[in-house]
Design goal:
Elements: H1 3-19, H2 22-30, H3 36-41, H4 55-95, H5 99-112, H6 117-127, H7 134-150, H8 154-171, H9 175-186, H10 192-208, H11 212-225, H12 229-245, H13 249-262, H14 264-269, H15 272-282, H16 286-299, H17 304-318
């Protein structure tokens, strides 16, 4: 091989290196050695038939291999060191309660190499920060999704998905966005306890976005096979309130009456008497509303709130046109 051919080969090899991105080198380093060559060899000038057996040609070929592997390990080493340093900066920022700076550091780690163990560790670190700031909450959602994508633990992925639902509902009030996230959990192999909880949350989310029919479908599906009395009570109470919301007073009255009859103590504790009274007040049956409150008043002799409600309803009865004692 003459000097011109050697220079052309070196120049071409350098141009190939310049085209490689960080991820190319990382991929090269992860590949078996037998797969390294095709990546660089296909664009290199091939030795002529007369110099295939030339020792100089073989030496250059090995030099090309060594350069590719060497550069890839160098890039990987630098990347790993950068990520470690960035992770330490994130931890320091968290200790100083500089959460925005911590989140910025974690984002840089994820952008450098999302598949690295350091990126997963950084995402876990970011997901532990408790904040109510909307911008940071959206970043926390991003970190949780990273954990779901790259964690090898089923329990960790499920827990991260649950936290996404919690953030959307309790911190951001985004019930419409919570619905598909809840359905993701319901599509997984989860225990019956979690399945009940998530399906109930799904019904509540539908209720919050005014999809009342779908909310009732979810509640009825849960009631079909439920045996636990406390859960049945909670489901029926929700369904009764749903009837009250959509002005289906007959359904609401029937459900609340059933709850008071079957679960009198729980009904008192959860305010079912007051809810039933509100239904009758809503349809103008004030005497019936007062009667229910007085019945509850006999069970709770120290309730000033009930006294005020009864007094207010009696005033409404007296002020109705045509009522006895009504005065202009």
């Amino acid at each position: 091989m003459n000097l011109l051919n050697f220079q052309q080969t070196s120049s071409h090899l350098l141009s190939i290196f310049l085209q490689f991105s960080r991820k190319d080198f990382q991929r090269i380093a992860r590949e078996p050695f037998s797969k390294i060559f095709p990546l660089g060899r296909k664009n290199l000038p091939q030795p002529s038939e007369t110099c295939v057996e030339n020792p100089v040609s073989s030496l250059i070929e090995w030099w090309k291999r060594l350069c590719i592997v060497g550069v890839s390990f160098c890039v990987l080493g630098c990347s790993s060191s950068e990520q470690k340093a960035e992770l330490e900066r994130a931890k320091t920022s968290i200790n100083q309660k500089k959460y925005k700076e911590a989140f910025d550091s974690i984002e840089r780690i994820l952008k450098r190499d999302s598949e690295s163990p350091h990126a997963l560790e950084a995402a876990r670190l970011g997901a532990t920060i408790n904040t109510n700031e909307t911008t940071l909450l959206n970043l926390e959602l991003k970190f949780l999704r990273h954990i779901i994508l790259y964690s090898t633990s089923d329990a960790e992925r499920i827990d991260s998905q649950k936290r996404i639902v919690t953030i959307h509902i309790e911190k951001l009030g985004e019930h419409s966005k919570a619905i598909p996230e809840i359905n993701k959990i319901l599509g997984l192999d989860i225990n019956p306890e979690l399945k009940f909880k998530m399906r109930f949350e799904l019904a509540k989310a539908y209720f919050q976005v005014n999809q009342f029919f779908q909310a009732e479908v979810e509640i009825d599906a849960l009631l079909e096979n439920e045996k636990d009395e406390k859960r049945i009570f909670e489901l029926l109470l929700f369904k009764g309130n749903l009837g009250l919301t959509v002005k289906d007073h007959t359904k609401a009255i029937n459900i609340f009456d059933k709850l008071i009859e079957k679960y009198p103590d729980l009904s008192e504790k959860k305010g079912v008497y007051i809810q039933l009274s509100a239904v009758y007040e809503d349809i103008g049956e004030f005497h019936k509303a007062i009667e229910i409150l007085q019945k509850m008043r006999r069970r709770d002799e120290s309730s000033e709130l009930l006294d005020l409600k009864i007094k207010r309803l009696k005033a409404r009865v007296l002020n109705q046109p045509g009522a006895r004692g009504f005065k202009r």
